[in-house]
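Instructor's aside before we start: the two examples that follow are unrelated to each other. I chose them only because their records fit on one page, so don't look for a connection. First example below.
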Amino acid sequence: MDESGRTASLEAAQRQLRRLIIAPSGVGAALEELGAAETRNLLQRVRGDSRLSAVERLEVYASAYFYRIRDCLIEDFGALHQALGEEFFHDLVTAYLIAHPPRHPSLRFAGDRLSEFLLESPAAAPFRRELPWAGDLARLEWALLTAFDAADSDVVCQKQLAAIAPERWAELRFEFQHAFQLLTLEWPVHSYRLNWEREGAGASRLLERAETRVCIWRERERVRYRTVDLQEAGALTLTARGECFGALCERLASEVGDDAAPARAAAQLSRWQADGLIAGLAVSPPSDQP
């Protein structure tokens, strides 16, 4: 066999071994599906000994594969793991990996579709019955993880804002830091996550369904999050889309009135700056200039 033939044979064997190791039904059942001839050919590549047969050795790899991913998901979704409990979370990982085997070489992305699975998949119905807000909690925890991994951003200080001429404020646009996210959730799962961070196993699972908006950002090495009301959520969304400050003030005036709008706008902007949300400023030229 020439070099290209040996390479192709090795790649085929690697693909077969991978299928066996990640097979949801286990190595033995997966081998039965391959057929006798293909099974014999594959097992010739795996050495057994007096302690473990070739199949048992493959089972060791398969078990290590599953438990390594499960442990990573426990770390990434700690509050969800606590809320569901050990047994339910174990079953959740099993069902999730059957539906969505990892697509990326890094374990960092193993849970990238867990919230989608919990919210939408028929296979996740038992977990939704056990914990109706499991999907929202998974979504929040994944957002916190991605915020932690986001690229660093500069922070606009108060002096930079104060240096902008008053006549230019209407055309001022803000750029948020890379870690910024705004989630709209059906359940106030942020409260469970906060209690879990403070109390661990003592966190209560009693939640009442209520639409909740959560703003997420990062302050140095720490991810922050807080709830925002409908009005602030709208302002954050428009700002993230590139709307100028004048347009935000006009919308705010239509919502809270002309008298209350200036103080409300100033308070929001001050909070965004203090939180470190604002990473950049841009002032468009007046419309009467080329």
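Example two begins here.
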Amino acid sequence: MARDSRNEIMQAALEALRTKGFAGASARTIASLAGVNPGLIFYYFASLDELLLAALSESSEERLERHRAAAEAVQTPRELVALLRHIYEEDSASGHIRVVSEMVAGSVARPELGRQVMALWEPWVALAEDSAERVLAGSPFAALASPRELALAGVTFYLGANLVTHMGQAPETVQSLLASAERLAGMLDLLSPRPDDGDARP
């Protein structure tokens, strides 16, 4: 029961961020959405910031595990960009984009919170780095940027796309940019050897 109450509070925190924004995600609002006494929040969490970070962390970890298999299976630049596009579209539809944007915006004037929010992205950067390294292995484009730089660029684009969408730009605009990037990545595919190219030659 205690675990259920804690999970319900975290889900309510995410809903508050989605519907009320960072400024509106108060303990009273979250408690109302969870159907609990506000004091119960501080039984499980030392502060409101700790609750919001815990909720974002759990959501991020769930999404990371859900997309990990697909990321580990990509073999070409186009497949990697297509996965990024899929994640953006899914997050846009679910409202996760606003959750992330509100947490980023809410931490701008609070350096410690900002560091904690950005730390949650490190597992995503690591997964993207592994994918980029595998995709570009043996490619003439591998020398243009390190896998780490490409991973950071992808995560930076995702965060920027979230903020742009949250500020009122139609998601279709970001989707159009990703579609163009996917086409460009398809051109790179043609210029890069596939992992099995060596085996295919006589």
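The first helix runs from residue 2 to 24.
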